[in-house]
Amino acid sequence: MANLFKSIGFLVLGIGIVIYLGSYLILDFTDEQVKTSVHPLLFRIVAIALTLLVLGYVLSFFQRAGGMLNRSKCVRCGKPIPKGRIYCFDHQQQVVEQYREKLEDLGAKAEKRAKI
Ligand SMILES: [Zn+2]
Description:
single chain; 116 residues; mainly alpha; rod-shaped; binds zinc ion
């Protein structure tokens, strides 16, 4: 959402610049009537672009701040952990050990079955 605002803001700003440069090439700015008709339009375009850009950056700031608050926690003890992890270091080792024991148990049972 924040990136969308930023993209549209830059797009509108780009359109404003193109219109500004284009109007310089096509229109005669010494003409007072042209000045009074083009400048308010440009002012409005730049205002819209800046509003969208500011909105985009404010939103992305809040998203980042929210991400800091919603940091991952270990499922077992609640310790803060890096993003994408499920357990803290100690509990991860514990879980790996338990899984290994389970596998060895299964292996032993399979061996027994093979002997019978
Ligand atoms: Zn833990």
